[in-house]
Specification:
alpha+beta; four-stranded mixed sheet; globular
């Protein structure tokens, strides 16, 4: 049972402790750093109140895909390739383009974005959400090979990342 107090948008659950109510009002992230992927306010609120993410310890690194409930709507995914249920994207299908203030060029193709119900969230619990984007994959995409932190990855992860980006591309639409 919930109760809304006059002149307050906050709903307090009855029959639970104040500490539990404070946890309900907490947010997963203090700040969303990179939100240029068409994520709606309702979707951000859903992520901010996600019980699985709220249970993580402050300072935990988060890199996961979350399924959106139907009532929250869909979000666009730009990813094409095997992890998205497609055949590998061939080199003859792509072009390279620098996006925004990124350090390198992204492998892109001329295909439309697709509506999906999964969101990838990468950030620090009770810190910044580095990025939130729609995906049709079950796993977060790896960083691109020109990313500043790429060289700090173990050799096997670098190889997996190179392989991923040889078979995948991002919609240019």
């Amino acid at each position: 049972m919930t109760e809304t107090y006059a002149h307050s948008p906050i709903r307090i659950k009855k029959n639970i402790t104040v500490k539990q109510n404070i946890k309900i009002m907490k947010k997963v992230f203090k700040h969303i750093g990179h939100n240029e992927h068409g994520i709606t306010k309702k979707q951000v609120e859903f992520i901010q109140q996600n019980r699985v993410l709220l249970e993580l310890s402050d300072g935990s690194f988060i890199k996961m895909v979350i399924e959106l409930p139907q009532y929250i709507g869909t979000v666009e995914s730009s990813l094409y390739g095997p992890k998205s249920g497609n055949k590998p994207v061939m080199e003859k299908e792509v072009f390279y383009k620098k996006r925004g203030n990124r350090n390198g060029e992204t492998r892109m193709l001329d295909k439309p974005k697709r509506l999906v119900r999964k969101i990838c969230v990468i950030g620090i619990r009770n810190g910044v959400a580095f990025t939130i984007y729609g995906t049709n994959s079950n796993k977060p995409s790896p960083m691109e090979v020109w990313d500043r932190k790429f060289k700090s990855l173990p050799n096997n992860e670098q190889e997996e990342t190179r392989k991923f980006w040889k078979e995948h591309a991002i919609s240019s639409h």
